[in-house]
Known about the structure:
8 strands
Amino acid sequence: MITDPIADFLTRIRNAVSANHRMVEVPASNLKKDITKILFEKGYILNYKFEDKTAQGTIKIALKYHPVTKIPAINKLDRISTPGLRKYVGSDELPRVMNGLGIAIMSTSKGVISDKEARKLNVGGEVICYVS
């Protein structure tokens, strides 16, 4: 049993990037699907696919690298809010990752969104992770 499935999800991606893998496969959940969609929309991953062959299902993620230098698009993935210590922020104190170059993925009342979208919608919520 995994006590923190989101941390496991981020660790699998982090390990695959450090090993220069092209694909990574993780167990699916609705929150992980939303995080994957945000990573795709912001250009951190190449593609993704949801498969429902098992009861839980899996997410296949194609990682993105620079075509010439082979540098990964994801440099850093940090889990912020953990099951033991939740991190909530108001709409006036939304985080800026690398002074706006990275993103913070947040769970808000408007759904799972990036920090930039949270600023536009003027909502706060739980900070799930930082991506840069």
